[in-house]
């Protein structure tokens, strides 16, 4: 059994995106509340396995197309390193594992519904919606927002409307940035939908959503209902982080995938760490 390629198939590095699940828990002040934390960890694992199931389904669907792509041809299924039968078997195990973990964490209708909705829209994305302009980016963006809503539902914490809007706006920025990166690195042939986009269109809309992100985030930190009154102190660092990310997208050789962009630049990792540490300090040292 080729375990290395099995790991590559499920894309564990992309689990970094699923850390958004912990945002409601962190900002509620319950990060160190063991019952809450255990539910959040189990939910994180369930969502991560569901995301891996989407990757396996996508790679099975696109194996012939990926085989002709200069970069994607090295994916386990497209290259033949993992057989289709083995991939289907792994898919069944992943979905079963996700169901068990979700049952252990929180089996409420809302939480299960959010997870099922994430799986459904991403399967539809893989089977054709990724070729529909605007809708493709919208689905990518909704995926990030669902992580936050799912994280709040899994521990029974309501998500702030301003935080929801900030995550939504930044998600559209990331989605448009991914398309622009693909267009810049591999041209309009990188994927079918990119034939409908231009660099100027993507660039203009990216920075509209980037501006909205800063506005919504700032409004969230100064919201009168915000229980952590000093979170506004993070605004300058968040702006610096967003600018640094934009610089990496503009000047790097990445195709715009958020995880790849962050991991390719040490200064982004340090800025994310510093911002996270400051937020934790403001929430838990100054309750």
Quick rundown:
By secondary structure, the protein is an all-alpha fold.
Description of the molecule:
This protein is mainly alpha-helical and 287 residues long. Helices cover 71% and strands 0% of the residues. The protein has helices spanning 3-10, 23-27, 34-61, 63-67, 76-79, 84-105, 109-126, 135-155, 161-186, 199-221, 235-251, 258-264, 266-284. Helix 3 (34-61) packs antiparallel against helix 8 and helix 10 runs antiparallel to helix 11. The longest helix is centred in the first third of the chain and has 28 residues, at 34-61. The mean pLDDT is 91.
By CATH, the topology of the largest domain is Tetracycline Repressor, domain 2
Number of domains: 2
Which parts are unreliable, with pLDDT below 50 for 5 consecutive residues or more? none
Task: Supply the number of helical segments.
Answer: 13
Assign the structural class, choosing from mainly alpha, mainly beta, alpha/beta, alpha+beta, or little secondary structure. mainly alpha
Q: How can the largest sheet be summarized?
A: none
Share of β-strand residues: under 5%
What gross morphology would you assign?
A: globular
Architecture per CATH nomenclature, i.e. the level-2 architecture of the largest domain: Orthogonal Bundle
State the CATH superfamily name of the largest domain: UbiA prenyltransferase
**Under the CATH scheme, which class of the largest domain?**
Mainly Alpha
Chart the SSEs and their pairings.
Blueprint: H1 3-10, H2 23-27, H3 34-61, H4 63-67, H5 76-79, H6 84-105, H7 109-126, H8 135-155, H9 161-186, H10 199-221, H11 235-251, H12 258-264, H13 266-284
């Amino acid at each position: 059994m080729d375990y290395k390629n099995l790991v590559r198939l499920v894309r564990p590095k992309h689990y970094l995106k699923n850390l958004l699940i912990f945002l409601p828990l962190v900002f509620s002040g319950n990060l160190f509340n063991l019952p809450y934390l255990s539910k959040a960890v189990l939910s994180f694992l369930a969502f991560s396995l569901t995301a891996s199931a989407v990757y396996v389904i996508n790679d099975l669907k696109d194996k012939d197309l990926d085989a002709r792509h200069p970069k994607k041809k090295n994916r386990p299924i497209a290259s033949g390193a993992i057989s289709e039968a083995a991939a289907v078997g792994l898919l069944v195990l992943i979905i079963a594992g996700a169901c068990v973990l979700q049952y252990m964490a929180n089996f409420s209708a809302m939480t299960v519904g959010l997870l099922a909705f994430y799986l459904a829209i991403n399967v539809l994305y893989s089977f054709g919606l990724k070729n529909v302009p605007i809708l493709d980016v919208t689905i990518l963006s909704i995926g990030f927002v669902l992580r936050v809503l799912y994280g709040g539902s899994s521990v029974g914490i309501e998500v702030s409307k301003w935080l929801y809007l900030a995550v939504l706006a930044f998600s559209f920025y990331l989605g448009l940035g991914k398309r622009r990166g693909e267009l810049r690195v591999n041209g309009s042939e990188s994927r079918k939908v990119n034939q409908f986009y231009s660099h100027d269109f993507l660039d203009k809309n990216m920075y509209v959503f980037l501006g909205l992100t800063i506005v919504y985030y700032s409004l969230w930190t100064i919201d009168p209902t915000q229980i952590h009154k000093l979170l506004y102190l993070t605004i300058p660092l968040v702006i610096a982080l967003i600018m640094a990310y934009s610089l990496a997208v503009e000047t790097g050789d990445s195709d715009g995938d958020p995880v790849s962009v962050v991991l390719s630049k040490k200064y982004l990792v340090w800025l994310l760490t510093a911002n996270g540490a400051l937020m934790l300090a403001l929430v838990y040292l100054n309750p």
